[in-house]
Amino acid sequence: MTTPEIDLQDLLNAQTGRVGWPELVRHFARGVVICVNSDQDLVEIAGKLVLDEADLIDGLLQQGVLHRAQDNEAMRWQEEQTEFWAVVVAPWVLVQERSK
Length: 100
Prior knowledge:
The protein has 5 helices and 5 strands; from the N terminus they run H-E-H-E-H-H-E-H-E-E. The protein has helices at residues 3-15, 21-30, 42-50, 54-63, 71-80; strands at residues 17-20, 33-36, 66-68, 83-89, 92-97.
């Protein structure tokens, strides 16, 4: 791993935090919330977006590892007041549901 990649990972890790559904509602309404499967490394995926690794990201989308948040998820999140790990890679907000 090169030094710039380490720096990017550290930066993204430092910008990752816990957020509740109320903080994500407006981003969901804008259509910019991207869900990352819980078995994936949120920071690593965010780094791939920052580095514009389009082929890799397309593959992850096709595999269902990543997807835009859907209305049925938003209704469940509202009902359950779900908490997330999140990181912003403008214009996207990448989220993973926190374990209960």
